[in-house]
Amino acid sequence: MSYDKNNIFAKILRGEIPCKKVYENENVLAFHDINPQKKVHVLVIPKGEYVDLDDFNNNATDKEIVELNKAITHVSILLGAKNKGYRTLTNIGGDGGQEVPHLHFHIFAGEKIGKMVT
Ligand code: 5GP
Fold this sequence. Notes:
5-stranded antiparallel beta sheet; 5 strands; 4 helices; HIT family, subunit A
């Protein structure tokens, strides 16, 4: 699938749509999910144009890959989840349930997250 520059996260990255920012660096943006599924629900996205994790792993630079992974840990600390635990996941494609075609890791925290898959 080719990258759709009009997806909602591309618009957030361009500043066309507001977001509740948690963290930002050169290659990464993290913000609160608009429809939180748990007490804390944050999305961590690369600033580069990657459809999903497979696209990212195949085409991103090593620096982008390292920074996105490190950002997940950094954001978990900012959210106060360091010692309590949290869940991170990314959905890929139709069977994976991905709705927004720009790579994003969900971070769920702030309470017991429960069953791994429902
Ligand atoms: P997916 O199903 O693609 O893994 O997750 C997409 C997520 O993006 C959903 O949890 C949904 O609530 C969130 N989302 C969709 N539109 C917006 C938006 O405009 N702003 C924010 N902050 N989150 C959004």
